[in-house]
Amino acid sequence: MTTSRPLAFYKPYGVLSCFTDPAGRPTLAGYIPVPNVYPAGRLDYDTEGLLLLTADGALAHHITDPRHKLPKVYLVQVERVPDERTLARLRHGILLGGRRTRPTEVELLPASPDLPPRPVPIRFRKSVPTAWLKVTLREGQNRQVRRMTAAVGHPTLRLVRIAVGPVILGDLKPGQWRELDDVEVASLNRSR
Predict the structure, then answer these.
(1) Less CB within 10 Å around the terminal CB: N or C of the chain?
(2) Nearest 5°: CA angle at 71, between 107 and 82?
(3) Which residue intervals of the chain are DSSP H helices?
(4) What is the CATH number of domain 7-66+167-180?
(5) Does the active-site annotation cover 44?
(6) Angle, vertex CA 129, rays to CA 126 and CA 131, nearest 5
(7) DSSP secondary structure, 34-71, as one string
(8) Residues 98-118: what's their mean pLDDT?
(9) In angstroms, rounded to a whole number, what is the distance separating the alpha carbons of residues 142 and 82?
(10) Under a CB-based contact definition with an 8 Å cutoff, are residues 28 and 17 in contact?
(11) How far apart are CA 147 and CA 145, in angstroms?
(12) Catalytic option among 21, 44, 83, 171
């Protein structure tokens, strides 16, 4: 199967954002039978959700380059319920490794989002409540969301990316992929 269109893929938990792994861990090759496409960016092994793949190197660079400030939206389950002061700290930016993160959109969700179950359940502690946040970043430091929530005392338990710029995860299930439609491709190209 070949395609010249970018792909949207729901990367499952426990899958690497590459096509080969010398250690034999699960990779994109187990899910995407399309030759000559490469991930535009990455998601950590323990992060789920939307990963874009393309054969267009310039488009991949545009998607990943923080100068373009393409928003990336995540649903984040954290330990304990953050108060408004903590949310304001996250929104303002957190000092990580001597560098302050850019201002971030952070919203405390009123209920748990409707997500597929994870193959490895999150750790459950009866005495520690959890909360869900919707976080929008316009940069991509290494493990940034996890580091930010940990820095304010609310470790991330589950992390799911649901949008990259104009492309949303939609109704894809873990392990499924689709070609981007004309509107999504045009929208990504317009943002260049």
Answers:
(1) N
(2) 20
(3) 57-64, 84-92, 144-151, 182-190
(4) 3.30.70.580
(5) yes
(6) 145
(7) -TT-EESS---TT-EEEEEEES-HHHHHHHH-GGG---
(8) 93
(9) 23
(10) yes
(11) 5
(12) 44
Q: Locate tokens 């520690």: which residue? A: 128
- Which residue in this structure is represented by tokens 């409540």? 129
CB 178 within 8 A of CB 8: yes
Mean local confidence (pLDDT), 106-114: 96
Model pLDDT for residues 121-145, shown as the tens digit of each residue: 777 777 789 999 999 998 877 789 9
The CATH fold of domain 71-164: Alpha-Beta Plaits (3.30.70)
- The residues, any chain, with a CB within 8 Å of residue 98's CB and separated by 6 or more, are none
Distance CA 163, CA 154 (A): 23
pLDDT for residue 53: 95
Tell me what the mean pLDDT of segment 48-54 comes to. 96
Following CA atoms 75, 81, 83, 89 in sequence, which dihedral angle do they give, to the nearest 10 degrees? -40
Interatomic CA distance for residues 133 and 28, integer angstroms: 27
Q: Which two tokens stand for residue 136?
A: 């929008």
Q: What are phi and psi of 150, to 5 degrees?
A: -65, -40
Give domain limits for the chain.
Answer: 7-66+167-180, 71-164
- Name the pTM for this structure: 0.93
